[in-house]
Write a structure and sequence with these properties.
The chain is an alpha+beta fold. It is built from six helices and eight strands. The protein is globular, with a radius of gyration of 17 Å.
Amino acid sequence: MVDPRIYEMFRDIGRDLFVSNLISSHGGNLSIRLGDRVIIKRRGAMLGNLKPHDLIETGLEKNDSGVALASTELLVHRTIYMNTPALAICHCHPRTAIAFSLSRDELVPIDNEASYLLKRVPVITEEFASGTPQMAHKVAEALKNYKIIMLRGHGSFAIGQTLDEAFHWSSTLEESCQIELAVKLINEPFIEYRKMSEAYNKF
């Protein structure tokens, strides 16, 4: 049985992902690492309405939970944990960021907050973009140098020391993309306000 405090943390972040329109009813994933253990959302569970039995605890390197219900993205989460200092992962489907990922190799924020927090977000491509070893390796490699990345056409993977932190990067990215979309719709000349703005796509 997962500690009630851990369940409450998953429940609250999962609800926030849903009400922020960062996932559909059954989309996305959350996990945390506790030493050589991983706690992750159950396959098919609704992140916006998690129940205690929707969390699965298993080993970092192999499945010893006795159940086959862990998320289909478990391999990706394990690979990230074994290759980065992450203790928490938030995988979601931010709609505007996904739309931009279909035509860009990186997302470079134009707003102040995301420019400061994220600098730039790489977009990686994997033909079979759900739970494959190839995808797991590419995502983990990219997250060695970034706190959040986009998988083209699929969604974002953010890491942190807590779920709160990983959620922060996820919501910041989508807000930034929504701001850029609004700027494009307004269609007026952009007035640069940042010092050294030309360096933002070089971080």
